[in-house]
Amino acid sequence: MHGITKSAAIPLKCTPHQVTCFAEKNLYPLIVSVPLDPVKDVAYYQELVLKPLNQVLSSLVDQEAEKSDGPWQTRATIPMQSSENALTVRVVTLYNTTTKENKTLLAIGTAYVQEEDVAARGRVLLFSIGRNPDNSQTSVSEVYSKELKGAISALASLQGHLLIASGPTIILHKWTGSELNGVAFFDAPPLYVVSLNIVRTAFIVL
């Protein structure tokens, strides 16, 4: 595109699938897939890799000298379960109806890859991301996990609520601090929702 230049290319020893920005924590969460040793495991797994936002490395094959205060580093990984694939990752701001406060969390939607005669299912995962002030280490804490019917294909936050898309169905949830409770839904057949984009108080389905 005219006027847009590449600022950096970051080498990954894996296949990236989706990226989002966690500006509050200066991180880039990535969904990546990594093949395992077929002798040990014939399946594939996916993990979430958190990359620091403020560090840039010129990434030619010979690893040129750093152009900033350090290289891009893996801060934390979140492995998926056996036969589970991460499909979407979003940074969401949810209103806790118990504490009456907003909280920014990392949300992941997954799906299990199983035989065709097995009903589809997936998980919604919420994580709290923090920093240890003593050593600057990134801490990742799971605050919520629930298995749902269908693959979780898209996530987004809307006015403190969490939108969860599973195929053609979109459900609006409120967050209590320990549970997600559905409060409204929208069916969009024959669409298969892969992206939810928020514009003010509305959402756009792709």
TrEMBL record:
Residues 73-205 form the RSE1/DDB1/CPSF1 C-terminal domain. It comes from Actinidia rufa. It holds the Pfam family CPSF_A. This is Cleavage and polyadenylation specificity factor 160. PANTHER family: DNA REPAIR/RNA PROCESSING CPSF FAMILY. GO terms for molecular function: nucleic acid binding. GO terms for cellular component: nucleus.
